[in-house]
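Q: Hi! First time doing this. I have a protein sequence and I read that you can turn it into a structure. Is that right? Here it is:
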Amino acid sequence: MPRDREVGSLWIGGPLSWMEQLCLKSFVDKGQRISLFSYEDIPNVPAGVIRRDGREILDTDDFIKYEQKDSYALFADLFRLHMIHRCPGMIWIDTDVYCHRPMDYDDDYVMGFELPGEHRVNNAVLGLPAESDILARMLDFTADRFSIAPFLPRGRQERLRKARDAGKPVHVSQQPWGVWGPMMITHYVHELGLLGHVQPLNAFYPVTFRDRTKFLRDATIAEALLTDETTALHLWASNKKQIGTHHAGLPPPGSYLDQLVRSHGIRPELAPIKGRGRASFDGALIDHVDLENVATVADLTGEARSFVLALHHKYDCDIKLIDVNGRGEFETRQQPWIQPYSAFLIDHGVDENRIGIVRSKNELRPVDVLCNLKGFGDRRNVRGLKTFLERCLHADSRLFTDVRKGSGAFPFLKPFGANQIISEHVDDRTDVSRVVVSPRPPDPGVADESWDRIASELAGSDGFYRAGPRGHSFLYIPRSKGTLVVTFDNLDIAMNKRDDRRPWGYSLIESQDWSMLGVLAGGWTWYREPWVAAQFDDLRDSGFFDQFDHVVFYGASMGGYAACAFSPAAPGCDVVAISPQSTVDKSVVPWETRYKVVWDRDFTGPYGDASEVSQAAGRVYILYDPYEPLDAAHAGRFTHENVHHLRAPLLGHRLGSSLQQMGVLSSIILGALSGTLTKLEFYRALRARKDFPRYQRELFNRAVASGHTELARRLGNHILSRGDNPSLRRSLTALEDALDATKGSSRGTQRGRSGKSGP
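A: Yes, that's right. Below is the predicted 3D structure, encoded as structure tokens:
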């Protein structure tokens, strides 16, 4: 008799890729209860998956792995046995197992043959009676990490005995793959006569390991192998290597995996496959970007597609493709990689208006991230890189590049900044290092000379300019005594990303004849420099803020934190903060996984926790996207009565940029700065998002991800009836194709079942 069964799994290793997201969400979508155990926070677990601490099962920090393949599969083999023992009736599933239909097996024994011939049993799907003899034997066997398995080949057993007798026993991590997995369970199933409890091949492994790449080919190929016996379908994580190497870490278009992610509303571009074992793919470079914001990324060689796509979806940045040949020269003809690269980006949700082609040296501009993979210094002469380093790097840029041994690239790059080797591999029998280069910061205590000149001129004889350590500075520009706006900005952005080389909001504030105090940081420091706090103490004690009728502190993200945190220097001031952090103190907000660059900074003191100290302000406006989990968590920490939460759904962390593109930022900020902004006026202005492509796309994707496919279809058609949105149009077409395919498959299954149950 069928019974409700819960399944459980384990994840170690940071964020999930789309493959794990797909598999976990499939159980939720098919109505099967699923728990995911882990030993650390995982930021992108699909909704509906139950989160549980792995220490409930095994309280340990010893995560043993197969050293040869650098895989935690060994620890997972151990963990599943203890999970089954402690959670009677729960079925273990690997995170690469997809729910084709719910597993409602009545038998406590749930396992399947993985190869024709009905001999070898796999443990990717495993259920056992909690007090069974087979489970007890396997728990006993795995308790000794130097045990010699009786099911290993005789020659291997003999070598292990000799090593043990010589006083050098071989740890399980050095033994063959599967020694605590399929090899062990196969042995005990046969020894204890449990073959009658093993499900046939079609139950879990109709696509065998040898045929695993069929999941990467046309969807009909894998579909033809599924039967009515198929429940949990092993997708084989080994496919990750092929996907990462040849498909930019994304499911191949038209494949069975592509069909599955579309049907479950998974967005692979937001969670590309980054690695497999010791192999690391280009998308993994996203974890080495230590910048608060990325406004623009540029690719020189056409080899960083998955990395660039990941950057765009994480930071909502613009993309520049630099159209140069192998010598670093611009030609009249377009390089052959440009068009397919653009098509790839567009096919994966990038608005074509966000992609620019750089066709001449005069069009080169500073960018935040410059990609030179498999390019100059590796397969091309490193000297061809010189022009791009000079014109495209600013003080806070990052260059991701490959360096071939003997190319002379390391000495060439040295004057441009400090380099860090991320990974190493062998290409054509030569060592190649993947490197990130960070331009050297200015000498401590020495501000940029051109900024000194500009700031001094702006301050004039009636204002002041104060230069502090590590590029921090205060610039006061006096105008009227009615309103003072205190802005928080990054010096590098002001000097390298704005044509007028002015602090944020300079023209807007000037147009209102308001006075301005610009506080600039020398990098992503969150202003946690004692000198900055001392300046605010001095301005407060000298009565500087008291001379103005109205004082407003303004900032976004890092600056939003500072606007709230330093507001006690001007008690009663108003604060306008866009997507602010409340603090980056890991002891207070352990869930904040961004901004590693300041995790070692001191966030205590009278200007420390912004959510607490800002209660001294008058009105505190917090503008944020409630669907950005970390931003929403920070906003939720601002709980005092003076706080006004202004929600801007589905506009992202770079909310200011989205409002600017919608054409409403100036009016909202002016209202907030002047103290006239109300929630009603804010939400009226926010109506403009209905015609904003990003909002439309996110709203559509959220409907799909929630399983409301018919609503998503109607929404997509309604939006397109009002105007074109290329990215949404492609997503809608893909959704309709997937729905049509699902209906066709359902009709075919019904016909097949009716045929089997005939007279």
